[in-house]
Fold this sequence. Notes:
heterodimer; A: alpha+beta; 4-stranded antiparallel β-sheet; globular; B: alpha+beta; 5-stranded mixed β-sheet; 5 strands; 17% strand
Amino acid sequence: MTSRVMREFDLLLPESVSEAITLLATHKDKAAVLAGGTDLLVALKFDYDIDNVISLALVPGLNNLSFDTKLGLTIGARVTIADILRSDDVKKHYPALWQAAKVFATPQLRNTATVLGNILRASPAGDCSLALYALGGTLILENTSGRREVNLDDFWLSYGVTARKDDELAVSLQVPAPSAGQKSAFRRMTRVTEDLSKLNAAVNLQMDGDKCTGARVVMGCVGPTLVRLPKVEGLLTGAIITPNFLEGISNIVGSEIKPIDDIRSSAEYRLKVAGVLVKRVIKQALNEGNDQ
Amino acid sequence: MKKHTITLTVNGEERDLIVSSNRTLLDALRDDLGFTDTKYGCGTGECGACTVLVDGTTSINGCLTLAATMDGKSITTAAGLARDGNLHPVQQAFIDNDAIQCGFCTPGMVLKAVSILDENPNPTEAEIRHGLEGSICRCTGYTKIVEAVQDASNRLSGVGE
């Protein structure tokens, strides 16, 4: 196959969630789900062989992007990156996600690619996935026997592998309501802006005045999955964040990650700059509104 | 392989066609309907030569879209921008600013410019450059292209007339 010629498959166009999950129950691992398709179609042009493609194009009710001060943010399976960027609620309450959406790929891909697709791809470089990993979230999966919820912390098992079962449809993601004093940010490094990240980082800090009372610090492109940095999180929790303190944080980031050499960067370079990126993303979170 | 009967409105004209499951929108436009102004570049959503506008001015990559999922949609290609024999102001600005070298990226660039200006009629240079990401010019004539978009912005908002 080439970038021009796609494999043969049958495209199925269910018109409801129940029809879609019935098709998934029938075809299981012989079917792939198509939402935006920006990853799936590229895969189908190269090394991915599948008999059936189940498109969500005609399934109603999956475009829901809504914010509630108690329930938080609901992101339906067909919500695109561009939808996230247009949301004032996301910009205000979940800056890490908005900042990741802003630099995500290209305008055409942002108009097509979905947030849930980014999560399901289970790439260790996923920008929106990383921001959501920092913010925390619960994926709602549905099959013919019902619904179950999986926390993002338990969702990515290894490179490209998730906790989704073959017959399950990811219908939405629920992100908790932000608390007072919550500050988040996302930052990444690329060679040119439309490249995949060579390194990315996101933080979600719970601040009480100058004091940090809770922290989630995550990085991408430094292992087979997105990773949390527990030592950094531990040091941040309870700390007053000063420039000196941030230097100390910066120096221990390298001990928590295992980057590799690949076409986008070298392990040596990633180890060298990871601490700086974490320091900067923490500063960015504390200086609200100062995005990249 | 399953076939699908779909209707696309391309540049204002309704067209019925039958497409295989794996037919891309790009191939349907070029090979089934003859809209060869939409170009095949990389086939993987990186170069933007296949850009078309859907239902207004939302830009997408035709190479990463299955035609059968687009039933009922309205598609605009660069060939559909002219009105009554007059080029769209963005097209005229590209000509007047020498923003075309080999021309292969031009249909996609012009459509992206239309999309940028529809969302933000007076973009800054940085906003134009951010908006043009996803369209690659291998002649590397970006400076002229950015100037053409600025010029088109002025023309559309009536500055200097």
